[in-house]
Specification:
mainly alpha, 277 residues
Length: 277
Amino acid sequence: MLAAALIVFREVLEAGLIIGVILAATEGVAGRGRWVALGVVGGVLGATLVALFAGELSSAFSGSGQDLFNASILIAAVLMLSWHILWMSRHAKELVRDMNALGKKLATGEATMAAMAVVVGLAVLREGSEVVLFLFGISASGGADLVAMLLGGALGVLGGAALSWVLYRGLLAIPTGKLFAVTNGLIALLAAGMAGQAAVYLVKADLLPSLGDELWDTSAILSDDSLPGRALHALVGYSDRPMGVQLIAYLAVLAALVAVGRSHARSKAAAAPITGS
């Protein structure tokens, strides 16, 4: 039961942290709860399908199918998160001025929430498939009592969800004028971390060179397998032993998102009316 609880807790926490950031980032967007719930349900269904066909998926593309699948999920999530950052750059001032402003922009609000629902679904799909495979493996091997395993899994879900809720409420405690800048920064780090991890999967599939298998090793200080390490991995893309191509992908995506955000801010400032005495 303890093993099931720990594994499920870890995977739910990773997905939950992403969902918490997205909920805070879309505060005030009409119907966001419905979209996030849709993403969660879609992710759970997708994770179950992935687990059922895990063998076929792993053997596809000369044994690289699982790595290519994971990379595709992460790249899609990076694109959706980037879209959200651009959208928020255009509408953040409206949200700060009036948290109900997006109710008057239903079409635009639905567009960004559809993108965020995809991100939520992909996050749940990625972590959920690992949970399903783990629990199925334990059940198939007879390594644990089914009732105890399910109870441990339920405790893991509750614990991961509770910590994710704490993060979400903590973000909402930030003054509204700064909330969207903070969440945009977190989402940029999320996207950069996912890009770096996608690069790792592409290296495993022999589609990219590693450019250095281990640039540094901070596992003695903060391991990827520890709870803080997993949380930082989910939120900012932390890796205790990064590859060279992983670092390049991380910095490239982060720099691109920062540059686009600053360019948009400058263009809005230049277009703003000048008031004189």
